[in-house]
Amino acid sequence: MVKYHSRLDATFQALADPTRRAILAALTSGQTSVSVLAAPYRMSLPAVMKHLQVLERAGLVRQRKKGRVRHCRLSAQPLKQAEAWLSKYRVFWKNQLDSLDRYLTQQQSSEARACMDKTQSPANLTLQTKRTFRAPRERVFRAWTDRAELAQWFAPSEEYSTVVPELELRVGGRYRVEMHHKGGIVHSVSGTYQEITPPEKVVFTWRWEGDASAEESLVTIEFHDLGNSTEVTLTHERLPNPEERDKHAQGWNGCMDQLAKFL
After folding, report:
1. Residue 64 · residue 70 · CB < 8 Å
2. pLDDT of 195-241, one tens digit each?
3. How far apart are CA 22 and CA 67, in angstroms?
4. What value does the mean pLDDT take over residues 159-176?
5. Is the pLDDT confidence value at 1 over 50?
6. Residue 3 has pLDDT above 60, yes or no
7. What torsion, rounded to 10 degrees, do the Cα atoms 175, 181, 185, 191 define?
8. How far is Cα 199 from Cα 64, in angstroms, rounded to an integer?
9. How are beta strands 32-33 and 69-74 bridged, if at all?
């Protein structure tokens, strides 16, 4: 047992030096002369020989002389013994790391649930939809921000005609849109512009008129330039409940369909 641990000590002592580890790595390619092994290092040949002697005492290197050239080759048996010794502790650390992984997974799941509960709680639901249009970004941006153009398409279906009594395109400016259904019902929505970055982004508040219980929400429209096409990302935040979110998702998808026909 003492001899076994003595061999392990010699192995780990030999491996503790980066130069000696590099020499072993070079020998994995096969038998190599001492001069070739010494070439990459900025040290004298005697200094390299001292490293080889340490490796040889540990049984990691075998040397033989052929003529005037000394050759070295790798002896892997001590490495196998070191690996066997380390494997006894690998199970211990694997169990510890598995326990840590389970703990972190549980923590992440708890945090994710808490975040979801917070962001998706009543009065704070969000929907997002994306659509790509075959038109330049400036053209699509204008369709959303020009009063006359907005009136030509902004409705969930062809059963509506749209009137835009007010549209003041500036931060703090108001807009108002009336969607007249052919059956006589009028849906009106209004709000104020919070952010305008032509032709990249528009942010505005959103509130249905004529409903005292309706809460103000927030709409963000982002325009992504794809050359001859434009990807529009619509994000509608602060919706009060899943029912309202689903209704607005249906309405926005209908508007996107109408915009595609208009463009």
Report:
1. yes
2. 999 999 999 999 999 877 788 999 999 999 999 999 999 999 999 99
3. 26
4. 96
5. no
6. no
7. -10
8. 76
9. antiparallel
pLDDT over 90, % of the chain: 54
> In sequence order, which residues have a C-beta less than 8 Å from that of residue 28 and are 6 or more positions away?
74
Alpha carbon 91 to chain centroid, angstroms: 33
Q: How many other CB atoms are found less than 10 A from the CB of residue 259?
A: 21
Report the C-alpha gap between 37 and 73 in whole angstroms.
11
Highest mean pLDDT, choosing among 21-25, 27-31, 74-78, 205-209: 205-209
Edge to edge, the sheet with strand 186-197 lists 125-133, 230-239, 217-225, 201-208, 186-197, 174-181, 160-167
Residue 58: burial class (beta carbons within 10 Å; 0-12, 13-18, 19+): buried
pLDDT at 71 over 70: yes
Q: How far is CA 174 from CA 63, 171, 223, in A?
A: 88, 9, 21
Tokens of 118: 């917070």
Task: Give the chain's domains with CATH numbers.
Answer: 2-79 (1.10.10.10), 125-262 (3.30.530.20)
Q: If we measure between CA atoms, which residue out of 33, 44, 36, 23 comes closest to residue 67?
A: 33
Q: Which amino acid is at 262?
A: F
In angstroms, the CA 94 to CA 9 distance is: 24
Q: Is the pLDDT of residue 150 over 60?
A: yes
Q: For residue 103, which amino acid is it?
A: Y
Distance, CA of 187 to CA of 238 (rounded, Å): 20
